[in-house]
Amino acid sequence: MGADLSTAANAESSDEFLKAVLGAAYDPNTSLGQDFDPSTLLPPQLKSATTEDLKELRDLAARHSQKLRAQIKAHSANNNAGFIETFTSIRDGLGSAATASRSDANQHLNRYSNIVAYDATRVLVPKNKENFNCDYVNANWIPSEGPRKYIAAQGPVPASLVSFWQMVVEHDARLIVMLTNEIEGGKLKCHRYWPDDNMAKPVKKVKIGTYIVSFEGEESFPTYVHRKFKLYLESGEARDVSQMAYTA
């Protein structure tokens, strides 16, 4: 069964979408479970906790929050010297193998040369004509002890737009958490990869590869924007995908 033709007919092509996003910078040759339920993250034992258990938990949380506030205050002194020292001491893991990320053939799919996807945990997408028979996307699986799975992905560049949404489809991602703004400090940090009727040239739907992404609405909060999309697959299946874009 093919995609709904009425939906496809109203969708912008990926090239038209990129033109709307990039404007004069457009170059045609540049080439995430079900609805989230926070209660599922609670330890099973809390569902039958006694009053004493809850009091102990609150007291523990209070002690840890006091310790956290003290650490933040100490690290913030002298122009955040403590945070800077801690950040620079973090091992970036560049000693790990990242053959696919460092391959010359995939450089146009990376936003930064020093942020790589490690071979051992990188996310694969099936090769097809839409991604030029390439299984690479700059993303890695994050280990988790719970049933949920997480992916850390680089903000897409125009050339990786198809692979990014293919990753969302293939691994059935229903929630995208965006931790960067599109522009920060006057620098482009992430190309817009979603349709948005609030753009200078409104785009309600966009066809990306064999998928259609439809903008269904958004709600703004003090520190983030919650956007809703409908993702149409070639089979005719429609999925709800949410994006939490943090703006603080």
Describe this protein's structure:
The protein is α+β, with helices and mostly antiparallel strands and 248 residues long. It has two domains: 158 residues, Protein-Tyrosine Phosphatase, Chain A (Alpha-Beta Complex), CATH 3.90.190.10; 41 residues. Helices cover 27% and strands 23% of the residues. It contains five helices and eleven strands. A six-stranded mixed β-sheet has the order 1-8-9-10-11-5. The longest helix is centred in the N-terminal third of the chain and has 39 residues. It is globular and about 55 Å long. The termini are far apart. The relative contact order is 0.16. GO terms for molecular function: protein tyrosine phosphatase activity. It is an enzyme of class 3 (hydrolase). This is protein-tyrosine-phosphatase. Belongs to the protein-tyrosine phosphatase family. Keywords: Hydrolase, Protein phosphatase.
